[in-house]
UniProtKB/TrEMBL annotation:
This is DUF2695 domain-containing protein. Pfam families: DUF2695. It comes from the Bacteria.
Amino acid sequence: MSSTTGADEVEHYLRAVVEREPQVGECLACFVDRMVAEFGCDSSLLWATRFRDLRSPTATALEKRFRAQAVRCDCLVVQKAYTPVREVLVRDLHTDELERPERMPPCAGVRRTNTRPCAHWRRSPMAGYPD
Ligand SMILES: [Zn+2]
Ligand SMILES: [Zn+2]
């Protein structure tokens, strides 16, 4: 990574942010996962709050809960706040361990104003995470 980060790229990123919307029925976790895969994480809860603003503007407890879990940015939302359920994991042929797939399957769907993840994710327990 080097000199490619410039004003153009920032502008491209910002434009992407205002253009991107969750798909119909797409859940918070799948949306954030998809956006982080595509655009990376800017070390904020950018995509999570965008989802919240668009889908469920009153769900202000969401960020509070993330902060309480030390989830400070989007990539942690889908690594820490939520983790893929066993059913979507794939077996690594070398280590024989279950790992998250490179791309999550399409969202299993949630009701429109819901900030809960779909059936592909589970909410991680708060305990056991070193801050
Ligand atoms: Zn991040
Ligand atoms: Zn989903």
